[in-house]
Structures are given as C-alpha cells and as structure tokens.
Amino acid sequence: xxxxxxxLFIALVAATSLWCQSTAMPLTxxxxxxxxxxxxxxxxxxxxxxxxxxxxxxxGDRSSAWVRPDRADAALAGVTVYxxxxxxxxxxxxxxxxxxxxxxxxxxxxxxHTVILAQDEKLWRSYFGVTTDKDPYxxxxxxxxxxxxxxHGEARDLEPLLKAxxx
Length: 167
Known about the structure:
Layout lengths: L1 H21 L6 E4 L4 E3 H5 L4 E6 L2 H16 L7 E7 L5 H12 L4 H5 L1 E4 L3 H8 L8 E5 L5 E6 L2 H12 L1
C-alpha cells in the first residue's frame, strides 16, 4: 500500500511540474524603472531568458544577487535577464518611492531590465508556484517561452543549477 501512495505522489509531482511548465506567462503590463511600459511575456518571447521575480522587499533585496553577477557571467552570455517586483499590495503613493529606490545605482541598461508590476499578483504567484514571499523566484525560459528550469532562494545555492540547465 505504501508503494502505491509513493507512486501516486511521484505522478502528482510530475503532473504538477508539467502543468507549471506549460502554463503561459501572464500578459501583465508593467513599467521599467526607466519609465518604459512593457509586457514581460512579449519582451522575453524569442530569446533564452532568465526572469527573477520578487513578491516582498526582502525578496527584492535578495534578488540583486541573482541579477548583477549574471550579467557579467560568461555562462549567461546571450541570455536576456530581467528582474521584476510585484508591488500590487503597495499603496500607489509608495510605489513611486519604491521605484526611485530601485533605480539608484543601476545603469541605464539595468533600469530597462528592472520591471515594476502592480496587477495580476495571483496569476504571477501561480505562475511561479510561490510558497514564501521571502525568496526571489527564478525561471529560465527558452525562446518559445517554455520554462526550462525554475527555483527560488539564494543565488549562491541555485545558480549552478541554472547554469547547468543552460547547457
């Protein structure tokens, strides 16, 4: 009986993984910290891409470790890297302050690749399979927009797995 439950559990995990990988990225309009309106799903289409997403300030602070080293890493040459922050829960007046804070210290290119989202939080949480707000969530997409790898947590722990998925 235990073996049957074990097999059912494995099948459920496999089905969930396939469902997550076949789910389309939400078509939410956002704004880069440089002020440009974009839809991430459209911008990332046609490119091998990494998207780092945060759902809290703590995760946003920790997501920088994913983004900055990746831009200089030869293993990620030719990979489009975007960082996104979900701010739907933040009051409208506070969003501008957050955006200005995020802009500090970023190059013009980094500002164009850092996106503020203020709607569809439930869709994005579902897309990433969010289990904790404290972690940044990372996905590797192929040119067709299919998720090839996903993880959440510290860059130092998971970055080798991301690089291995690129090979």
